[in-house]
Design goal:
This protein is of the alpha+beta class and 253 residues long. It has seven helices and eleven strands. α1 packs across α7.
C-alpha cells in the first residue's frame, strides 16, 4: 500500500513540475499577448521585438552615438534613429521634457533639483508596429515589414514624399538630408541577421535595452516581458507596437 502511495505521489509531483515548467514557458507570450489581437510570433519564427527598462536608463547617450556610427546617421542635430528624453515632474505638477542633441552628449544636472519630485530617462526608437501607419500611407511600397517582424525602408523605392514621417504617431522618422529619403531605426537589421544585437543594445552599460525573439520563450526579451510589468506607448492608437517599456510613467508620450 505504501509503495502505491509513493508511486502516486511521485506521479503527482512530476505532473506538477511539468505543468509549472510549461506555464513558465508560456508566460512571456501570455504577458505580451494583451497588446495584440493575434500575436504573429505564434506562427512565425523568429519574430523580433524590443524592450526598454526605464528604471535602468542613466541617460549616458552611448546608445545614440552607437546608432549614428553604425548606421551613418547624420551628426547634425535633429537627425536620430534613436534618442533619449529626460522627464522631470515637479512639486507643482508641472512636467518638463528635454533632450539636448537627442541625449547624444548626456545630460547636465538640473539647477532646480529641490523642486523635482521625480526624474527619469526614456529612450525612444521605432516602435516596430505590427499595424504600421507608415506602411499604410507609403504610395510606392518603399516602407514594408519583413517576415520576421521588422519595419524597414527600401531606399531604392522611396521618393521622399514624407507621408510616412507625418503618419508615424511616435515621431521616429526623419528626412535624410543627403540621401533625400525617409529614414528611421531598422533595429540594425544587418546585424541581427548575422546573429548580433543591435548596436544600441551592445553598448548600453546598464542593460536598459533588451532585444530578442518573441517566438522564443527563452529569449532575453520574452523572459523580460514575463518577469516585469510592461506597457507600450499610445496603446489606444491600435498600432500594436513590439516595443515594450518597463517603468513607463503616464506623463510619457
Amino acid at each position: 500500500m505504501r509503495r502505491l502511495d509513493r508511486r502516486r505521489f511521485l506521479r503527482t509531483a512530476l505532473g506538477a513540475v511539468v505543468a509549472y515548467a510549461a506555464s513558465c514557458l508560456a508566460a512571456p507570450l501570455a504577458r505580451a499577448q494583451r497588446f495584440f489581437r493575434a500575436p504573429p510570433w505564434k506562427i512565425r519564427t523568429p519574430y523580433w521585438g524590443f524592450a526598454v527598462d526605464i528604471t535602468k536608463c542613466i541617460g549616458c547617450g552611448k546608445c545614440v552615438d552607437a546608432c549614428k556610427t553604425e548606421n551613418d546617421v547624420p551628426r547634425e542635430p535633429f537627425y536620430f534613429r534613436t534618442w533619449v528624453e529626460r522627464y522631470a515632474i515637479r512639486k507643482s505638477g508641472e512636467v518638463t521634457v528635454d533632450s539636448p542633441n537627442g541625449g547624444l552628449d548626456g545630460f547636465e544636472p538640473m539647477r532646480d533639483e529641490d523642486s523635482i519630485v521625480k526624474a527619469f530617462f526614456v529612450p525612444k526608437l521605432c516602435n516596430l508596429c505590427e499595424n504600421s501607419p507608415c506602411i499604410q500611407v507609403c504610395p510606392v511600397g518603399a516602407t514594408f515589414k519583413t517576415e520576421d517582424g521588422v519595419v524597414l525602408i527600401d531606399r531604392k523605392y522611396c521618393i521622399g514624399c514624407r507621408y510616412c514621417i507625418q503618419a508615424c504617431p511616435y515621431g521616429t522618422r526623419y528626412y535624410h538630408p543627403t540621401l533625400k529619403v525617409a529614414d528611421k531605426c531598422s533595429l540594425c537589421y544587418h546585424r541581427i541577421k548575422r546573429g548580433l544585437n543591435p548596436a544600441c543594445v551592445e553598448v548600453c552599460p546598464t542593460d536598459a535595452r533588451i532585444f530578442g525573439d518573441l517566438s522564443d520563450p527563452r529569449s532575453p526579451l520574452s523572459r523580460f516581458i514575463a518577469e516585469n510589468p510592461v506597457q507600450v506607448l499610445k496603446p489606444a492608437m491600435g498600432t500594436q507596437p513590439k516595443l515594450a517599456y518597463k517603468g513607463l510613467d503616464r506623463e510619457v508620450r
